Amino acid sequence: METVLSASASAANGLATTDDSLGPISEVPDEPIALDADGLPVEEPAPAAQQSALRVKRAAAQVSGSGTVNWASRDVNARWEYGQDWTNFVSKALYHGGKVKTRHGGRKHDRAWWQQYYLFGKIKNKGYAWAAAENFRRHMIRYRGAKHVTAHSAKPGELLLFKWKRERGYNHVAIVERKRHGLQLIQHGSSNRTSLAAAILRYRGKPNHIERATILRPKARS
Length: 222
What we know:
Elements lengths: L47 H7 L10 H11 L10 H12 L17 E4 L4 E4 L1 H4 L1 H11 L3 E3 L9 E6 L7 E8 L3 E4 L6 E3 H8 L6 E8 L5
Antiparallel strand pairs: 1-2, 3-8, 4-5, 4-8, 5-6, 6-7
Helix pairs in contact: 2-3
């Protein structure tokens, strides 16, 4: 069977932890992807108004989904910087390909999204929202205007986050690469390319199965 994501959703290096002083995770509601009786994503028809909206061009200030995918595809085999490098990889794709600007602030605060390197790249320092999935999710919603979208309306370059049952917050993030036989994903994981359906099937029936998956559409570059 294909190994899709790490069997362990907990981070030994602390990158999956959140700063509880900033409020409970439930403070930001999410909209999980609808699943059918078999636990697979439901293919939902898009309403007429939504179909019309999908034809409208994105404004210049919005995140470049194609740029995010192009960078991720080109650099997916780049060296991992962390034992669990998926959020760091997605942040890089948004920064270099999607042209999302960094935000300064305290390393642990969700409003800050940045990375720094010292001594010719030998020492790295990154904000929690840059490299930890749950902090990243909250940053995108609170400070980048990210909206929840359905699997049917998802576009390349959007962000798919997973939450395992035994984990307090979301702990994995991948990029929607394309829509073909469902959502195809690109990521830093046990498999660089996989699908939403394969990820869910990989853990279905296990005590620490994927309990929730949600798709975010980041809106603001700055």
